[in-house]
């Protein structure tokens, strides 16, 4: 019985040693299989991101210049008017960058309407940009230039005029630029209203003097809650 047990252990050990002679090959095969699975999984995830998931565009105000921003009461307004009619004279230039972060889908933008506001009051809505096509992972810039002399601001409240005087003294104005358009992902039917809001802090500069550096500003993207957008 003892000899049988010893023989059994010997055969078991030899069998284990024989199995271990293939251990290196087995581990190598397992590692190769894991690498292949990881690559396939990554490729599948990339395809899902590219085709199944769509991301909205991103935007930033890369450059801006304010060379005139003057507010004065209208000549025919009276001191009893509440509030008196204000006239605004201004010159401003803004450059906005639009980026498409999608790996596969291009984006088409309809005509873009631009509006400039101060203290919640719009003072210019003349800026427009024609239709744009933005390919996947591409970027484009939109340059806006607005100006007027003595434009009436009937909706500017008295508090807005006070805030204007305060910022005028500091030589720095908080101006908001908003772009409104309708975008469409190429290959999809949904047409998606889109708003881009860029809050700008602009230093008033003399046009005959070198402009000060503008701090790049991230814009907020406003999307409609529509399927496919």
UniProtKB/TrEMBL annotation:
The chain crosses the membrane at residues 27-54. Keywords: Membrane, Transmembrane, Transmembrane helix. Residues 95-181 form the Late embryogenesis abundant protein LEA-2 subgroup domain. It is a single-pass membrane protein. One of its GO terms (biological process) is defense response to other organism. GO terms for cellular component: plasma membrane; plasmodesma. It is found in: Membrane. InterPro entries: LEA_2, NDR1-like. Signal peptide: none annotated. It holds the Pfam family LEA_2. PANTHER family: HARPIN-INDUCED PROTEIN 1 CONTAINING PROTEIN, EXPRESSED (PTHR31234:SF10), LATE EMBRYOGENESIS ABUNDANT (LEA) HYDROXYPROLINE-RICH GLYCOPROTEIN FAMILY (PTHR31234). This is Late embryogenesis abundant protein LEA-2 subgroup domain-containing protein. The lineage of its organism: Eukaryota, Viridiplantae, Streptophyta, Embryophyta, Tracheophyta.
